[in-house]
Amino acid sequence: MQDSQxxxxxxxxxxxxxxxxxxxxxxxxxxxMSEDMVFAPRAxxxxxxxxxxxxxxxxxxxxxxxxxxxxxxxxxxxLPSLLARLGAREELEDLAITTNGSQLHSMATTLREAGxxxxxxxxxxxxxxxxxxxxxxxxLDQVLDGIEAARHAGFKRIKINSVIQKGRNDDEVAxxxxxxxxxxxxxxxxxxxxxxxxxxxxxxxxxxxSEEVRERIEQRYQLVRSNHATGxxxxxxxxAGSETQVxxxxxxxxxxxxxxxxxxxxxxxxxVLCLGDEGALDLKSLIRRHPGDSERLRDALMxxxxxxxxxxxxxxxxxxxxxxxxxxxxx
Length: 331
Description:
Elements: E1 16-20, H1 48-60, E2 65-69, H2 79-87, E3 94-99, H3 104-114, E4 118-122, H4 128-135, H5 140-153, E5 157-163, H6 173-183, E6 186-190, H7 203-206, H8 210-217, E7 223-225, E8 235-239, E9 245-249, E10 262-265, E11 270-272, E12 280-282, H9 283-289, H10 294-305, H11 326-329
Parallel strand pairs: 1-2, 1-10, 2-3, 3-4, 4-5, 5-6, 6-9
Antiparallel strand pairs: 7-8, 8-9, 10-11, 11-12
């Protein structure tokens, strides 16, 4: 198989797959899902073997980075066996996981031994009551213990992801940077994306731009432009005098679609070509109708990619632009 045939109509080469292994989570973060979330029946979720078949097809078409997501991926039973198979693929330059950190205290070493190189850990507040308000779970200590376990497990890089909302946690921006600097971690600040209908806050009021976040950081730290890159949408700065990279993911204020190199596959096997678009291809039906037919699957991926839109059009008002929650897509 020739190296990458995954080039969209705008000349962008797809080398990065975000692969969701579950829509379930042990948290209920307010911007990610509803408190009474209805999860997909287990029979509708791709099996570990099917997930590997999808990943294998993408690798055969030139994907070199895979990030495993959820929901919370670490609640998926049997996940280490899938990670070990992916970690053994010499073609992959990077195998990473996005996690809420709740299971890392017991799983960090297992993940590292399976071949996971990098971790992104969600952390929106260092204050227990506020953390519980964001996640609807009182588990900050558990997450902090998980971060420490990950630090000692030998990952190449560990990054904190923080969604910043005005009037809710924007006063903690500099403290979150201090937390990262003290532990040799990287950190990315994310503008909230309008996915799913939320009741905990009004997005047009709580929207906090990356520029506002950077200004808060610079009240305490000097930031220097950085060439650091992970293959994602973050624009990076370095905290002067430290190894910490500070990233800004700005889907509203700095559209990054021109360099998009990724697609997503949901836990239900839907190929999502753009996070800001409802369109999706049902890979699960194809896989289950034609088990083991890797060539048919690759052909379907190449055909579907021709429908990838040029860009998303996120807005900060209350209108829901994408009905599905982030947990259903894969973070």
